[in-house]
Design goal:
The complex is a heterodimer of chains A (324) and B (278). Chain A is built from 13 helices and 2 strands, in the order ααββααααααααααα. Chain A is an all-alpha fold. By secondary structure, chain B is mostly helical. Chain B is flat and about 70 Å long. Chain B starts with a helix and ends with a helix. The chains are: A mainly alpha (324), B mainly alpha (278).
Chain lengths: 324, 278
């Protein structure tokens, strides 16, 4: 630490406390960077990389959405807003948007209810339940592809262990009674299961952290007022957890709406597109139907809607800084 | 006395409930591992059994002998390492600039990272195919690592910023008085203080890349294929070849589980921070 960097000023006995105006003025006089300049220099590489790897592709996406025909060589021509018109009126894309919404609601609701229940349970049991908490975290580390294949394996008609176990406990008469992944009415729920399994732990963890931040004397006071059980949960716990719940809902909502790998692996969007969400539709429009214009227009609309919804959610539900 | 008994019974029931929930939750993973040790025929037996009748490593041998599988492991490791190193090299100075100097660039970067998180990966991935193709990086671990940096970098910036927030600025000032430059102070004094947070962030960046699928699907074909793609290809090429698939999936999960074990408690802290901060 004693080896000085080239930019360091020599240490003088009369040096005033660092951070004061005098030091700042002097360093500028020596041609050193100001704090703001230094901060910009530190942040610049990350900003440049994000602009190159995200900004540029997104600009290209919007430009591509104004053209028809396959990306390279001839056949590409300016189309104005035609692709957007297609994206907004195509029944397949509209249905996919509806399914994306339904899928997101299913996943997020299930995770919130299960996550809250488990978080309350762990909170009641306290630090002694640490081993259980750790075990509960493991699905978070598993690759979504592995989770998708695993659940497909668990739910295959007849051969899957899920139906076998349900039959053994008497909930089903025959393992072939429920076709989780090939019944169009059921498949959207079935493909949501791995996602719920993978990330309920996340919800639990966040809510558990939130529960621990609630001061115990608030419960004492409520108990003295005669509040018990469910009443305590509804009037004390939930209102205090509100900011935490809001953040978790926004994060999980955004992620669930973008779901791709877990569904692709399980059903590839089938049967009869019954589990095809927007990300899959966009991927197929691009790769299978080779229609980059429509794919780009659909992605652009998808992105705009996601950002608007998320921003409204952040401003109205989370309201950072407005509540203690 | 009866009060005490009632309380004991209630606590006992709560414990039973917690154990049941965790057992149910862990079952799919346990079943995956158990299946991987069954002989290939037993893995798809009707009706299925939970426990292996005979223990066998055949599935592992079959999986590892498939063409491209070992190469895919090498690709997964090199891609994840490049993406992690790149994200950390960029995120550490950026996060410090954001927390310590509260600069405008920093705030824009913070907001930008949040926006990136909301963009659907397909929207970024599809144009990236052409862009990386133009610079000759398609089907290379470096190209894929660059794409995965779009996920790992914003995450790293947010996580590191929350860890840096706990560093008192007096530490930097003391280092400056001792004659360090600001950059040397960051490297030699601040970083050691937050090394735990840096490690956790690096693990999250690594896992983000290790588990990533969509970019790998779009940007690699043969040479740079990662293991998630190899696992996914199993089912289309070989039909219901579940035994070797469970073996490969188990193998692929080992590094993630080991990394998590190593930094268990810190990871819990990191996850909750990441949740609250984005």
């Amino acid at each position: 630490m004693t080896r000085t960097a080239p930019v360091a000023p020599p240490r003088t006995p009369s040096a005033p406390a660092p951070g004061t105006a005098a030091v700042r003025r002097r360093s500028r006089a020596r041609g050193r960077l100001s704090d703001a300049g230094y901060a910009t220099l530190l942040a610049a590489p990350a900003a440049v990389v994000l602009l190159a790897l995200v900004g540029w592709p997104l600009v290209k996406l919007v430009v591509d959405s104004l053209y028809t025909g396959s990306g390279l060589g001839d056949g590409r021509s300016f189309a104005g807003l035609d692709n957007y018109l297609t994206a907004l009126t195509d029944p397949g894309i509209r249905a996919a948007a509806g399914r994306t919404l339904a899928y997101t609601v299913i996943v997020v609701t299930a995770e919130l209810v299960l996550g809250l229940a488990v978080a309350l349970l762990f909170h009641r049991l306290g630090p002694k339940a640490r081993i259980l908490q750790t075990l509960f975290l493991y699905p978070l580390m598993i690759a979504p592809v592995v989770a998708g294949l695993l659940w497909r394996f668990l739910m295959i008609d007849n051969v899957g262990i899920v139906n076998e176990l349900l039959t053994r406990v008497g909930l089903l008469d025959n393992p072939g009674d429920v076709s989780w992944l090939s019944d169009p009415d059921l498949v959207l729920f079935s493909v949501a299961l791995p996602d719920i399994w993978l990330t309920t732990s996340f919800m639990t963890l966040v809510l558990y952290a939130g529960l621990q931040a609630i001061p115990p004397d608030l419960y004492e006071a409520a108990r003295l007022d005669g509040a018990r059980g469910l009443r305590l949960l509804v009037s004390v716990t939930l209102p205090l957890l509100r900011p935490v719940i809001a953040v978790a809902l926004i994060i999980r909502g955004v992620d669930a709406a973008r779901a791709f790998d877990v569904i692709l692996i399980q059903t590839d969007g089938g049967p009869q597109s019954a589990s095809e969400t927007l990300s899959l539709t966009i991927y197929k429009t691009m790769v299978s139907y080779n229609d980059p214009g429509t794919a780009a227009a659909t992605s652009t609309l998808f992105m705009i809607v996601m950002m608007l919804v998320a921003m409204v959610a952040v401003l109205t539900i989370w309201r950072p800084g407005k509540e203690s | 006395m009866s009060h005490l008994l009632a309380a004991r019974i209630r606590t006992g029931l709560l414990w039973a409930a917690a154990v049941a929930v965790v057992a149910l939750y862990a079952f799919p993973l346990g079943y995956l591992v158990l299946t991987s040790f069954k002989p290939a025929v037993d893995a798809i037996a009707v009706p299925p059994t939970v426990l292996p009748q005979r223990f066998s490593l055949d599935n592992y041998l079959t999986a590892l002998q498939r063409p491209g599988v070992t190469a895919s492991f090498v690709n997964s490791v090199s891609t994840a390492v490049i993406a992690t190193l790149l994200s950390m090299a960029l995120a550490i100075p950026a996060a410090w600039a954001i927390t310590r100097y509260r600069s405008r660039t920093g705030r824009i970067l913070m907001a930008g990272s949040l926006l990136v998180r909301m963009a659907p990966a397909v929207a970024v991935g599809i144009p990236l195919v052409t862009i990386l193709g133009a610079v000759g990086l398609t089907d290379t671990p470096t190209g894929l690592a660059l794409a995965q940096t779009t996920v790992a970098l914003p995450l790293s910036i947010w996580l590191l910023a929350s860890f840096f927030e706990g560093v008192p600025r007096e530490i930097e000032e003391a280092a400056l008085v001792d004659g360090c430059g600001r950059f040397t102070a960051l490297r030699r004094v601040i970083l050691p203080v937050v090394s735990g947070g840096v490690a956790v962030t690096a693990i999250f960046a690594f896992l983000a890349s290790w588990n990533e699928f969509l970019f790998a699907l779009l940007l690699t074909s043969v040479r740079a294929q990662t293991t998630p793609i190899a696992i996914a290809n199993f089912q289309s090429q070989f039909g219901l070849d579940w035994g070797p698939m469970t073996a490969l999936a188990t193998l692929y999960s080992v590094p993630a589980v080991v990394l998590t074990l190593l930094l268990q408690r810190r990871i819990v802290a990191g996850l909750s921070l990441g949740a609250v901060k984005g």
